[in-house]
Amino acid sequence: MYYADWCPHCQKIKPEFKEFMGNGTVNVGGKSVHVDMVQPEKEPEKAKGVDVKGYPTFLYSDANGRVVEYSGPRTSNGFMEFLKEKILS
């Protein structure tokens, strides 16, 4: 999740996303998936080369470097279903 503290949409989803990501690792079908929250304005090195057009932006990056933007429901279940689709298919 790429976000900014000043963004009202980010403020709304931040608690849900923090609960979803737990300690930063989510188990999807027996595979550990790294999940992170990045503030491009405060951590530009973490956002280098990433196309963030607005906040919040949810991106999935696979082992081959392909990046897919998530645009589904902003809920724990929505995030998990997206990850399952990308990782288990």
Q: Say how many strands there are.
A: 4
Number of domains: 1
**Percent of residues in helices:** 25-40%
Global structural class = alpha+beta
Order of helices and strands: HEEEEH
In short:
By secondary structure, this protein is α+β, with helices and mostly antiparallel strands. It is built from 2 helices and 4 strands; from the N terminus they run H-E-E-E-E-H. It starts with 7 loop residues before the first helix and ends with a helix.
Task: Give an account of the 3D structure.
The protein has 89 residues and is an alpha+beta fold. The protein has one domain. The chain contains 2 helices and 4 strands, in the order αββββα. It has helices at residues 8-21, 76-88; strands spanning 25-28, 31-34, 58-61, 67-70. The strands form 2 sheets. A two-stranded antiparallel sheet has the order 1-2. A hairpin with a 2-residue loop joins strand 1 (25-28) and strand 2 (31-34). The longest helix is centred in the first third of the chain and has 14 residues, at 8-21.
List the helices and strands and how they pair.
Blueprint: H1 8-21, E1 25-28, E2 31-34, E3 58-61, E4 67-70, H2 76-88
Antiparallel strand pairs: 1-2, 3-4
Task: Tag the structure with descriptive keywords.
single chain; 89 residues; alpha+beta; 4 strands
